[in-house]
Design a protein that fits this description.
alpha+beta; Peptide Deformylase; binds ligand K2U; binds zinc ion; 29% strand
């Protein structure tokens, strides 16, 4: 397993990759599992609770997640070629962050329930319903696969302020 660099919005090169639409994966192979292992290690190290492959420079339709609370047993989740097949419930606001937009948090409204279909770590087809933080994270990560960042849901002013803040922090580092 290896740590990968997480792309951030402060450079044009990284932003160009983050804005790409990720490509479907033809098959769940050992190489793909190695990428998912690296993504999970990178996510835990960040730390974060979700990560899309494009965030480590691999624009393929793969997401990893672990929603286990501090102190609980890790509960790694792998989603290959995930699709949201249904959304429901009421619109719910949640204070989101993003490992590609470090240290910036803002409210985003999303449907409170989603039904998703994906291939798991073994390449088996799974259909699952999500709500709560799981639904928020799935939709946040699915946005990444479409080249959409959570700040793209904000006003132009707040989006520009977020990017300026990340650029300022990168210069200071
Ligand atoms: O995509 C990412 O950058 C990973 C996010 C996933 C996430 C964002 C918003 C809401 C839920 C999940 C990172 O895990 S950011 C860290 C974080 C953790 C819990 C809640 C909000 C942000
Ligand atoms: Zn994100």
């Amino acid at each position: 397993m290896a740590l990968r660099r997480i792309l951030t919005v402060d450079t044009a090169a990284d932003m160009a990759v983050l804005k790409q639409i990720s490509t479907p994966v033809p098959a769940v192979t050992d190489d793909l599992r190695a990428l998912m292992d690296d993504m999970l290690e990178t996510m835990y190290d960040a730390p974060g609770i979700g990560l899309a492959a494009v965030q480590v420079g691999e624009p393929v339709r793969v997401i990893v997640m672990d929603l286990a609370r501090e102190g609980d047993e890790p509960a790694p989740r792998y989603f290959v070629n995930p699709e949201i097949v249904e959304t429901g419930g009421e619109l719910q606001a949640y204070e989101e962050g993003c490992l590609s937009v470090p240290e910036y948090y803002d409210e985003v409204e999303r449907p409170s329930k989603v039904k998703l279909r994906y291939l798991n770590y073994q390449g088996e087809a799974v259909e699952e319903e999500a709500e709560g933080l799981f639904a928020v994270c799935v939709q946040h990560e699915m946005d990444h696969l479409e080249g959409v960042l959570f700040i793209d849901h904000l006003s132009r002013l707040r989006r520009d302020r977020a990017i300026a803040k990340v650029k300022k922090a990168a210069r200071a580092a």
